[in-house]
Amino acid sequence: MSHLHACLNQTFTPAELADAVRATLGKPLRRAAALTQLTLVGALACLPPERRKLPTLLLWQSTSGPRQETLALLDEMDEGGEPMPYDFLATQPAIASAQIQPYLPGLIAASHCPLNVDGQAHWTTLLMLADRWLAAGRCQQVLCAQLDAWGDEACSHWLLLGDKALDNSPARLHLIESRAEGHPDHPDLPCQLADWLAGETPALRLQAPAGFRQTVEFVRL
């Protein structure tokens, strides 16, 4: 069984995202792609300083991916230019975890799940994997996120799970053997989860993907 520690939703314009990075670090994050900036701002907002050294897993999914950086790289190559190494690195989603690790020293592993259909997500997969890692004692907390950066907007949705309940933990998560209908697995699930936490319904169950024998259920504490 895992416990929900935090539920966070953020939306920025490009200028607001740069300001949020400066407010978080006290300085800009040089040559960092929008997804990296989103990862940094969201992860540090979820984790107070005293918990940033704990063994942490990062699992994130994205529909946009590094699309803007990739298109910029291709445009530069089409014009006969030679891209700089950091321009190429910005097109690699995995670089985000490496760039934020100095600010999140407890980060021990990270995985990126690309999505190819707008409006769909794989929160069930991320949460099940998070629960397995926590149950096996491989980490103490897991950051699960949906990160998207488009031309005029960057948005992130976060759930932080831990192996133990904290004083402010609002719910616990467990896996159940059920194929019953549940809440649709949308990219903005943390928004819906925040609405549920503000209500009185005792549990929220996700809709299990086809082929899954288990589904995820949140139970209010």
Widest sheet: strand ordering: 3-2-4-5-1-6-8-7
> What's the order of the H and E elements?
EHHEHHHEHEEEHEE
Sketch the major β-sheet. 8 strands, mixed
Termini separation: 13 Å
Which fold name fills CATH's third level, the topology?
A: Peroxisomal Thiolase, Chain A, domain 1
Q: Roughly what fraction of the amino acids lie in strands?
A: 25-35%
The assigned structural class equals: alpha+beta
Instruction: Round the Cα radius of gyration to an integer and report it.
Output: 18 Å
- DSSP summary: helix tally: 7
Number of strands: 8
Q: What characteristic shape results from the CA principal axes?
A: globular
| Residues in helix, % | 25-40%
Q: How many domains?
A: 1
Describe the structure.
By secondary structure, the protein is of the alpha+beta class. It has one domain (about 10-170): Peroxisomal Thiolase, Chain A, domain 1 (3-Layer(aba) Sandwich), CATH 3.40.47.10. The chain has seven helices and eight strands; from the N terminus they run E-H-H-E-H-H-H-E-H-E-E-E-H-E-E. It has helices at about 15-25, 35-45, 65-80, 85-90, 95-100, 125-135, 190-200; strands at about 1-10, 55-60, 105-115, 140-150, 155-160, 170-175, 205, 215-220. The chain has an eight-stranded mixed sheet, with helices on both faces. Strand 4 and strand 5 form a beta hairpin. Helix 1 (about 15-25) packs across helix 2. The longest helix has 13 residues, at about 35-45. The radius of gyration is 18 Å and the shape is globular. The mean pLDDT is about 90.
